[in-house]
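Human: I wish I could look at a protein chain and see how it folds. This is the protein in question:
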Amino acid sequence: MKECKNTAVDTSEKSGTYFLMCERNWIYFLLIGVAGCFGAYTYLLRGNVFCNAQTGNVVLLGMAAGSGKWMEALYYLIPISAYVAGAFVSELLPGPVKHRLPMRWDTLLIAVEMAAVLGLGFIPDSAPVQISQIIINFVASMQYNTFRQAEGVPVATTFATNHIRQIGVGLAKEVMHFRSKDKSHRGKLGRHFCMLMFFLVGAVVGTFFCNIFSGKAIWVTLIPLTVIFAALLHADLTTEKEMTDKKPAGH
């Protein structure tokens, strides 16, 4: 994890650019760890599906339509619509929130996510799995659309596919620049590697607690989410109080 540590140190003092608290590397590492927990939770306990992204649901919708199973096809529009709604809401709210509340949308989103997680833990194991799935569809979409760049590097906080691809790209550049002094690609490579590792750790932790506490295991994600919320709220009220008009990179 040495590379993760070194990557996380790339702050404003080193780059000459000030990054908002909601853009800091460690925030993104914790967020994708939470997403790893979500993945374990929904797969093990809520219908053997991954709700952090929608590729699978689109494929299943197409398969159902292709087989003439129209009611089943319509069913898959529900989680897809929840994901669309999450992106829709997270795109509309940042402006009104920063003008009416003493915090950024990013901070409020984490509070909403914490409330959703708290509610998920109270859902009985016997309840329809679709309830939990739709909630996580909605929350994951908002998180994915809100947290876009970690200290200048575009990253995803809800799934690992792009990080795996970027690791492959980074390794190819390592080969191409093996005899060169240009090692600028290593920072980005290390960032994506760290994101992948935190996602994996989140899945491991989520699996461990799901096997012990069943549905209430989702509450373990409240620990990193509380840390993130405290850091973002503190920045909103103190160090970044006069920066409400500064948008996070990628928006």
The mean pLDDT is 92. The chain is about 70% helix and 0% strand. The first strand starts at residue 149 and ends at 150.
